[in-house]
């Protein structure tokens, strides 16, 4: 809906697109140079953020200082790899990202560059349908799978034994040792020869 309204407004104003500030479009009134007045966003940064900002090329700094405060806050909330990836995007990706709703922005990071390019190539109506599909896929993957068991039988495991195991026989059939293994002269006798063919093949 947001994109349709923007497309209609752009058409009414005779503009090709309504763009959020990007490297190509963000400039101040002085002509794109960082002045003392431009540093208002810089002063709000902590030391680590200032170090990262200072390492950027001037065009990134100019773009950043042209952003609204909520863009700047969102940007610093991203992990470092997202922040690096953002600057590698083409300008149209950057502009489109800021036009997305928060849930769409979150899903945008999960898309491949090819998928992002396909979405940008769509009409606004196709984009809305694509985002509906993406939301449905995310919702489906988030739902836990339900497994129904009919007449499940729960058996208690025998308590662990302390000390020696009793010899098997009579009522004692679990957690016990076979008589011959215990050194007694009773119980099953292991064969000391190969019986030949297995019973299944006779």
From TrEMBL:
The keyword Signal applies. Residues 1-26 form the signal peptide. The keyword Signal applies. Keywords: Signal. This is Secreted protein. The lineage of its organism: Bacteria, Pseudomonadati, Pseudomonadota, Alphaproteobacteria, Sphingomonadales.
């Amino acid at each position: 809906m947001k994109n349709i309204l923007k497309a209609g407004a752009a058409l009414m104003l005779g503009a090709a697109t309504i763009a959020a500030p990007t490297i190509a479009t963000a400039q101040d009134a002085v002509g794109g140079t960082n002045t003392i007045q431009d540093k208002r966003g810089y002063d709000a940064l902590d030391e680590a953020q200032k170090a990262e900002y200072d390492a950027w090329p001037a065009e990134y700094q100019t773009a950043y200082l042209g952003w609204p405060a909520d863009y700047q806050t969102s940007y610093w909330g991203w992990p470092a790899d997202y922040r690096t990836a953002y600057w590698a995007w083409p300008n149209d990706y950057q502009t489109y990202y800021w036009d997305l709703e928060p849930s769409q922005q979150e899903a945008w990071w999960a898309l491949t560059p090819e998928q992002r390019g396909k979405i940008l190539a769509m009409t606004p109506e196709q984009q809305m349908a694509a985002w509906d599909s993406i939301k449905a896929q995310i919702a489906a993957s988030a739902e836990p799978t339900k497994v129904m068991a009919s007449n499940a039988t729960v058996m208690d495991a025998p308590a662990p034994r302390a000390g020696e195991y009793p010899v098997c026989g009579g009522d004692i059939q679990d957690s016990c040792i076979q008589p011959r293994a215990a050194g007694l002269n009773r119980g099953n006798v292991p064969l000391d020869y190969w019986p030949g063919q297995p019973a299944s093949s006779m």
